[in-house]
Design goal:
Blueprint lengths: L1 E7 L4 E16 L2 E12 L5 E2 L2 H19 L4 H10 L4 H7 L6 H6 L6 H12 L1 H10 L7 H15 L8 H12 L5 H19 L9 E3 L2 E3 L1 H7 L20 H13 L5 H8 L3 H7 L14 H14 L8 H9 L3
Antiparallel strand pairs: 1-2, 2-3, 3-4, 5-6
């Protein structure tokens, strides 16, 4: 029995009440939905009485059923998003390009459209998707502090961990050691070309890691987070590196990519990849500025660069220069 008293119209007095669960139906947008709700009854006469908290809970239960039946994000998940990513409700709305109060309304219980709900579901489930949104739309935020705080939160969720003795890590050290200046963007493209051309010449993939079709071209996600703080600056060079850990065939590919592709800036190499089948096919109909974590299938990479090798009649890795020059002068 509830100790909080409410007014009973029949008894004309404040009374205790009991609560029972019962099947209910409600209408939203001209459609009926069944749900399990609660009713309060006077402990003295048994008549139905109104309790504001129970009425609110029944409305939430009805809306929960509506959300489940129509693929709309749950209210609890909406309310977890600002906490998860350490961002305020208004800044999140601005980041998404919505009206400043839009997310706040959804947080308070308003029903999002299916389109907006789908975006919120991806944000809730995919920290990487949110990370790309944060990076792409950070200028929408009114405070640099809001960006930095949320950036730290999402980076902690992603918590990349690439072994420093993995093949891709060793290749990175070699690239940093051999290149005069290499930015994170250029590094990503160099790794992608090494993977592709190594397969073209030796019919095997050098890296087990998958790259993804991000806005700025192919990206190895964990490598991005390892070096992201350098932003547009060259990555610090290691003092020395013993290249004897590589075979002569591997080193021939690395050196040719360094000589013929790393001579271009990261933005130029980005333009190259935007004209190549692996990135284009993986992104499909996505707008060019739309964030994506779609994995570029290794088979796409292997087939494309095998075709390039045949087209340019490449007999040795040195012949990569013809492809690089052709891509540079392509309009």
């Amino acid at each position: 029995m509830n100790t909080k008293k409410v007014f009973c119209e029949k008894c004309r007095n404040d009374v205790d009440y009991v609560v029972a669960t019962t099947p209910m139906t409600g209408s939203i947008r001209e459609k009926e939905y069944s749900y399990i709700g609660k009713e309060a009854h006077c402990a003295e006469c048994g008549s139905h009485i109104y309790v504001a908290e129970i009425s609110d809970a029944n409305l939430r239960a009805l809306y929960d059923v509506y959300r489940q039946n129509n693929g709309i994000i749950a209210l609890d998940q909406i309310r977890e998003i600002p906490v998860k990513y350490a961002i305020g409700k208004r800044p999140l709305s601005l980041l998404l390009g919505w009206g400043e109060q839009t997310f706040s309304r959804y947080y308070d219980g308003d029903m999002p459209t299916k389109q907006y709900s789908d975006i919120l579901v991806r944000i809730y489930n995919e920290p990487l998707f949110y990370s790309e949104l944060l990076e792409s739309n950070k200028r929408q935020l009114k405070s640099a502090l809001a960006y930095e705080k949320s950036r730290r939160a999402v980076d902690a969720l992603l918590s990349p961990d690439v072994p420093t003795n993995s093949k891709i890590s060793l290749v990175i050290q070699y690239l940093l050691n051999q290149c005069e200046d290499i930015t994170p963007l250029a590094l990503q493209k160099a790794l992608y070309y090494i993977q592709g051309f190594y397969y073209a010449f030796y019919q095997a993939f050098l890296f087990t890691e998958d790259c993804q079709a991000w806005v700025h071209g192919p990206v190895y996600k964990d490598i991005y987070f390892r070096y992201k703080d350098y932003r547009f600056d060259p990555i610090e060079k290691p003092e020395d590196f013993d290249s004897n850990v590589f075979s002569s065939g591997e080193k021939a590919i690395y050196d040719s990519v360094i000589d013929n592709l790393c001579c271009y800036s990261g933005k130029v190499l980005e333009r190259f990849t935007h004209n190549e089948a692996p990135w284009l096919t993986t992104r499909g109909d996505l707008p060019i500025t739309a964030p994506s974590d779609r994995i570029i299938d290794k088979e796409l990479i292997g087939n494309y660069f095998s075709t390039v090798k045949a087209k340019y009649n490449m007999l040795s890795p040195d012949d990569i220069r013809e492809y690089a020059q052709a891509m540079f002068f392509r309009k």
